[in-house]
Amino acid sequence: MRKLLILALVGLAAQLVDGALGMAYGLTSSTLLLFAGVAPAAASASVHLAEIGTTLAAGVAHWRFGNVDWRVVARIAVPGAIGAFAGATFLSSISTEAAAPWMAAILFTLGAYLLVRFSRPLRANRTAGRLRGRFLSPLGLVAGFIDATGGGGWGPVATPALLVSGRMEPRKVIGSVDTAEFMVAGAASIGFLIGLGSEGFLLPTVAALLIGGLVAAPIAAWLVRIVPAQLLGATIGGVIVLTNARTLLRAGELAGPVPFLVYAVLGAGWLVALALAVRALRRTRHARAVAEAALAVPVAGAPVGQADAAPPEEPRRLAAAVEG
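-> structure tokens emitted (324 positions)
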């Protein structure tokens, strides 16, 4: 019971992070299960089965808060489901010994990507036009495959790609990616069911993760507007990197001072990423404050009633840049 309670709290925390960043539910949960000694295929299968419920709840909550672009959802969900099914079938067919380093390497890489991604600000360019299907479909296919084989990865692949495009509001990117993940989780679960059978799912673990995620889903959809993603993303990225480095070091049979040196380097990198994230957050907030102050100043010489209606071009440009 104590273990299940801890897993429920992990599911709650993971969903809060996922709802605020558009990523990391699978990464966080799978990393914990691997750390506890669960077989890679069983860990990914259990997390994806739990995600069917959590992503449904998250999608409904994001829809209620107006965070979903249904056109984007339609174009990434189906390819994502195809990729997830293929990834689940692949992971189910290889041995536990071979799968553990593979899965840990994917999680480590995605964790490192989170550190890099959230240690710097991201600018948006919403004048570039709408996202096209020839970009969204391959993105969904690759993200779905990595998600199933790595026990997580749908968000870390899809969310940054959509953010970098600069053609969607960040909150709509997160809401759309979370909503589309419902189909991805369902397809992956079907693939694992075919490859592993029902015994491949750890049902008590699934139930605990699901309960925690369901509690957190509506809270996360609301928090996406106020939580500083810079710090949250950098923090979670460091945890994922350090935890999966342990599995990789064991697989490489490295002993002596090498593991200590590796952990020291990774820990130092984590601290640097956190410092950069704090700096980026402060700069963004300062720029936003400057833009808001500039917009509040009436235009010199403008007729009464027009000063507030037409802000100067430079403050308006600055405000548009900060919005991203």
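The chain has a mean pLDDT of 77.
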